[in-house]
Amino acid sequence: MDQKKGTVVVAIAAVVLTFLVAVTSMGIAMFTAVSDGALPGGGCDGDGGIGGGSQSIGGTEWNAEQTEHAATIVSIAVERGLPRRAAVIAISTVIVESRLINVAHGDRDSLGLYQQRPSQGWGSPEQVLNPDYATRIFYDRLLEIPGWAAMPPGQAADTVQRSAFPERYGPQEEPAAALVDRFWVGPDTPVPDTPATPDAQLAAAVFACPDQGGVGVPLAPGDIDPRQLPPGFVPPADPAQRAAVLYALAQLGKPYVWGARGPDGFDCSGLMLAAWASAGVAIPGGTVNQKNAGTPASLATIAPGDLVFIPGSLGSPTNPRHVGMYVGGGLVVNAYDSATGVILQPLSDWADQITHIRRIAGPNGEPAANPALARATP
Questions:
Q1: Which pTM does this prediction carry?
Q2: Does residue 50 contact residue 207 with C-beta atoms inside 8 Å?
Q3: Which end of the chain has fewer CB within 10 Å, C or N?
Q4: In what order do the strands lie in the sheet with 60-62?
Q5: How big is the CA angle at 250 (ends 248 and 256), to the nearest 5 degrees?
Q6: Does position 145 have pLDDT exceeding 70, yes or no?
Q7: Please, which residues have CB within 8 angstroms of residue 1's CB and are 6 or more apart in sequence?
Q8: How many Cβ atoms are within 10 Å of 232's Cβ, its own excluded?
Q9: Is 101 helix (H, G, I), strand (E, B) or coil?
Q10: Using alpha carbons only, how large is the chain's radius of gyration in Å?
């Protein structure tokens, strides 16, 4: 009897083991098949952006903001003719410092992707909170290090950052290299003896998704000059709102450039990021991320500096692709499209398409003067 039981137990164990091996093998195969590529809700048809939205790269899952910043870092290296190694060092640094998230806090006065300190000569808070500027000054300081490209993993990054924890950078070079491989275009360039001629056209080829920021709202004739402030315009009194609004308005007439965050051109979300950075407030890049920034607001209490979202030419009510800033006086400033640039439009032209309004900082506004606008609250 005991011998029979033992035989049965062995047989059952063998069947279970065979099943587990089969399931495990299937799981490994399935994991291998989906280890890289768009995650649910990601990709250019999902949360989109210049980085291609949420995706798995090198076996690590990155959200849309993280891939957006990685694409920015790589595009600047490509534009400046830097070797791939520079981009790997930059991204490994940002993975350590901020996990590729544009943050407005850190040790002492550290800010932004690289946790650069204005008090240590990295630039103003406005500058280091803009990922474009922060990346360029990081590369400037990296290139000043003799032999930086041949240093062991993590050493060049620590030399730039002067971190209290130098051992953290090297282990992040592997995921950083995978991100760089995802976005790099053209040949791997040698270490330059002299600064290369900027190649913005090649840099734009880094971006994973085509331009998704067109406004999709006809530019209707009206009583305002879309590139000039109307007479008697009064900026908001709140300091943060005032700084953001005045920065955005100072960009009127500048070109729309997909993926740009200033100072010479902007896409719609890049203008919002740069404007709020000027007020010392960090917001993420990309409309899909910005639509969740700050707190919800409504047309009934819209305030200067609020971000206003509409589907745009390629978006939807749940996934808007275009954003502007309410500046007061019933006006929205936005980077309209590549043919038009940064302009002012009446908020009423957008009212029936608004999907989200987000309060980044400052007090509520006054009730909408136009009752129709108040009723159109999303």
A1: 0.84
A2: yes
A3: N
A4: 37-38, 55-57, 60-62
A5: 65
A6: yes
A7: none
A8: 6
A9: coil
A10: 24
